[in-house]
TrEMBL record, chain A:
<dbReference type="InterPro" id="IPR028082">
    <property type="entry name" value="Peripla_BP_I"/>
</dbReference>
<protein>
    <submittedName>
        <fullName>Monosaccharide ABC transporter substrate-binding protein, CUT2 family</fullName>
    </submittedName>
</protein>
<dbReference type="GO" id="GO:0030246">
    <property type="term" value="F:carbohydrate binding"/>
</dbReference>
<dbReference type="GO" id="GO:0030313">
    <property type="term" value="C:cell envelope"/>
</dbReference>
<comment type="similarity">
    <text>Belongs to the bacterial solute-binding protein 2 family.</text>
</comment>
<feature type="signal peptide">
    <location>
        <begin position="1"/>
        <end position="20"/>
    </location>
</feature>
<feature type="domain" description="Periplasmic binding protein">
    <location>
        <begin position="36"/>
        <end position="292"/>
    </location>
</feature>
TrEMBL record, chain B:
<keyword id="KW-0762">Sugar transport</keyword>
<dbReference type="InterPro" id="IPR050107">
    <property type="entry name" value="ABC_carbohydrate_import_ATPase"/>
</dbReference>
<dbReference type="GO" id="GO:0005524">
    <property type="term" value="F:ATP binding"/>
</dbReference>
<dbReference type="InterPro" id="IPR017871">
    <property type="entry name" value="ABC_transporter-like_CS"/>
</dbReference>
<keyword id="KW-0472">Membrane</keyword>
<dbReference type="GO" id="GO:0043211">
    <property type="term" value="F:ABC-type carbohydrate transporter activity"/>
</dbReference>
<dbReference type="InterPro" id="IPR027417">
    <property type="entry name" value="P-loop_NTPase"/>
</dbReference>
TrEMBL record, chain C:
<protein>
    <submittedName>
        <fullName>Monosaccharide ABC transporter membrane protein, CUT2 family</fullName>
    </submittedName>
</protein>
<dbReference type="Pfam" id="PF02653">
    <property type="entry name" value="BPD_transp_2"/>
</dbReference>
<feature type="transmembrane region" description="Helical">
    <location>
        <begin position="29"/>
        <end position="46"/>
    </location>
</feature>
<feature type="transmembrane region" description="Helical">
    <location>
        <begin position="261"/>
        <end position="294"/>
    </location>
</feature>
<keyword id="KW-0812">Transmembrane</keyword>
<dbReference type="GO" id="GO:0022857">
    <property type="term" value="F:transmembrane transporter activity"/>
</dbReference>
<keyword id="KW-0472">Membrane</keyword>
Amino acid sequence: MKKKVLGFMVMMLVLTSALAGCGDGGSADGEEKLKIGVALPDFDDKWLSYLQDGMTTYEEEAGNIEGIYVDAMNDAAKQMSQVETFISQGVDAIAIVPVDTESVGTIVDMANGADIPIVVVNRVYEGIEDATAYVGGNSIDSGIIQMEEVAKLLGGKGNIAIMNGTPGHEAEIKRTEGNKQVIEENPDMQVVLEKNADFDRAKGMTLMENWLQSGDQIDAVVANNDEMAIGAIMALEAAGKLDGVVVAGIDGTPDALEYVESGKLQVSVFQDAAGQGSKGLEVAAKAAQGEEVEKMNFIDFELITPDNVQTYVEKWQ
Amino acid sequence: MTSPYILQMSDISKSFPGVKALQNVKLDVKKGEVHALMGENGAGKSTLMKILIGIYTADTGSVVFDGEKLSISNVSEALDKGISMIHQELNPVPEMTVAENIFLGREPTYGKTGIVNQKQLIRNTKELFERLNITTINPKAKMIDLTVAKMQLVEIAKAVSFDSKLIIMDEPTSAITDKEVAHLFDIIRSLQKKDVGIIYITHKMEELKQIANTLTVFRDGQYVGTDSIDNMSRERLIEMMVGRELSHAFDKEHAARHEVALEVKNLTKEGKFYDVNFHVRKGEVLGIAGLMGSGRSEILETIFGVMQADAGDIEVNGQKKKMRTPKDAINAGIGLLTEDRKLTGCFLPLSVRDNMIMVNINKYTKNGIINQKRIEDDCEDQKKKMNIKTPNMDQLISNLSGGNQQKVLIGRWLLHNPDILFLDEPTRGIDIGAKSEIYNLIFELAKQGKAIIIVSSEMPEVIGLSDRIVVMSEGYQTGELDRSDATQEAIMELATRGELIKRKTS
Amino acid sequence: MSNLSTVTNNTSDAGLHKESKAAVLFKKYGMLIILIALIALMTALEPNFINSNNIINIVRQMAVIGIVAIGVTFVIITSGIDLSSGSVIALTSVIVATFAQEGTYPLIVAVLAAVAVGAATGVFNGFLIAKGNIAPFIVTLGMMTAARGLALLFSGGRPIGGLSDSFQFLGQGMILGIPVPIIIFAIIGIVSYVLLNKTKFGKYVYAIGGNEQAAMIAGVNVTKVKILVYSYAGLLSGLAGMILTARIASGQPTAGTMYELDAIAAAVIGGTSLTGGIGTIGGTVIGALIIGVMNNGLDLMNVSSYWQQILKGVIITVAVYIDARKHKKK
């Protein structure tokens, strides 16, 4: 606890001094830094905060980059105007995690029009080839990897309950789509229940409690993210029904890893947030310096199971 | 043949539930005439004007306007026919400009596009102002930035801009200075030359001689008479306005001389009232008389801590008190029955019981918890004493009649048992039966030794109830009358003197 | 206030409005009848609905929203509004989680922290509204944004785990077979009922909502009562945040998103009038249960989330429509 408070105070201090530092103008070593505008959809999102951490870590390592981070608060229009600001500021490159996959096309066109390299991170969209580069995973793959492992654990048969994230979210659509592709390949597996719990632990828990009351046989709960999966685990545990139900999540957050370690969460999928972040910034920096960059940079999804969980625990340390 | 009259209203009656607002009244206005319409508050002037411009529909009677029988059902129809009205209470759109306000709803547009031609709008306004010799108002100014007097001028200009054949002016000088009054009168005279008829409602007798040609008086919803202004003396006018027998029997003994319960010295609230001095003794009923806007209600509200005095002292039982909030006044033993029952009295969504106990819940609270039983007993008691008609105490007060609501509100104060009770318009809007019950209650309370101050627009009521009467006019205390000297004529004389004082001081 | 309208004779002396018995009954118990009908409907469609486990389940799920809704009821009765509840839950959640770490402070410290954080936000709201004369909508909208920001800042945007078992008991435990959240909900319900109906403070709350001017003239310290009302609402949001945190065993800066709207919906469905002066604790609890029963039943029947949202919207609108009709009659 004390550490926490101390950390908080240190953070405030750092923040204040960072703000104070801004006034100085150029950096101390006199070298002109690369200005890279980073447009993120939501500072509140936990997974994205890991991605941002990956970026800042890379920024420190590289030394010649100055990242300008802005929060669109999940508002596509706001993100657009933030990118407009980047362009008028004359940044050297832009890295963007799009709020939605519709408006990002326009944003990319804007950057192209201003001749500023733009790297799209984490979320693919129709027309991605117009962007300078893409860095990230392929959402549908995570759903596939997740369900393939569940199918393996169930021996290719059983009743599946799917917990969807916030309706309309790219991750919600694609991950569930990946899940269902695998289910179709296994004729003895079927979706018996499917519902949204908004990527939220409390909502996932409530939904699971209600599902348990329905009396339906459930062999596996496959959730679009770890938080909902944890909620489901807690509800199952409280009802004494966790044994015999496979629970699967996606993201591999530190909380989730603890559940994997204890065997309660049998499947998670690691979307390397920090990896995407650092790679995203790296590609943007290269493009800013005029270097040729790879168009599609896939950061692989990795399957997390109780067997290999230790590797990922260490990643966060 | 053409009639000399622009307007002939005859045999007009109008009833509201429980009240006969107008009974067979008439009003004839000639072309090019300024016709003053006078009467006490509630005499029926406003109701008649509202019938004329289509806000109300008359129950009986006929209206002939410009030789044509008229039935108007809304204001815009009245404007089309050529009747416009300057209301006493101004209703401008504050964030719009002067020009936009004047031509609201009939802005000049570019053809049929619906797009407002701003230049034309300003030009029209300038022309209008030139015609009326208004030089001090910028058509592009926002209404909100104008003084009340200038707003009043804009309203007048607006009424004139309709090129009406008849303009109704409801107390147009109530908010403007003498210079502007002179300006207004110039405008009126120029309208007269164009044969425009003007109905001029006012309380100010001084103005009559200056501007009016003819005068009609209403009283209690009835037509009293019409005459040329030259035949009218101040005394005769007052008699016409108030000359009636007291309609209620006030069976009252003069109060004994007890000690002073409340005294105010040089009490002043800028813009409301100035330098007010009076006292009220235990067991005495003091009336405060005056026309609307004379400051009478504000005096009570100031003593009660609703607003703060700018100067002067308030003494309760000989001790100086500061009234910052109503709570201070209540603690000092004062109760206030407010003027507007719905607006500041009743808790409409709540039960009769909750309405009654709100002032003194403390009395029923033990260790923080309310003792329902004692409340029940006390409320039942009040219900019986005051003959409140309600099936039970859970009934919402909004379901009760006006008279019974008023009794509940008085009951609220009686439960608290204050030594000094202010009653502002205690019988407004309630039926005769409840009225006399409330009168008896007031006498009864005085007999118990309470000091009572009463404000009422109904003069017979003030005279009948009070031992002494303080008369206010335009914020000034113009006199004090003992019960034996208090006649309606005497009160009216004092109640209209304020403008003289005002002129002297300004 | 003295130069306002003259004649107010719109009520004839004939006496009371006549209403049919059924109308009176519906007015009083309308939402309870709807709740029972809803339960009957759900049972008919899904036999699993009506078992004691599931009923307990529903009440436990609604405990958090229900507690917030009770606080919001006080606020709405004064004709105010509180949009900050959801964010206050989040702020409480992360702060409480740091005080509830395994092996640090005794349980009481975490509970007190929840109460303190919640009440502090409420005092702040109340002060700006009552003393600063700023519209409640604006003040609490500001608090909604600021408290969420503080929660994120404090937690660095990440969930805080590692909560002690004794703390988790508050969300997950049972006493005599009854889940602890339900017990806390019930205690808060009873205390709030007494506060609103049996104390001076409660009467003043109704009085201010019924007619603020009249309350002031009746000697009510309007400023003080308003500050207390918002403080109580904040305090209850804090307790709700504590229960939520204990239930999901994690302090979450994103917890409670949109809970303020569910809470307002529960109050309104339960008959609390947004124009002020009207509302009961019982009604709000019923309102919360209606939302809970609907969510649960539709989950059991595996009806899509989209329909769930549409139905909730319809119920809220109908409730407000009924409320508006009631007022029109007068």
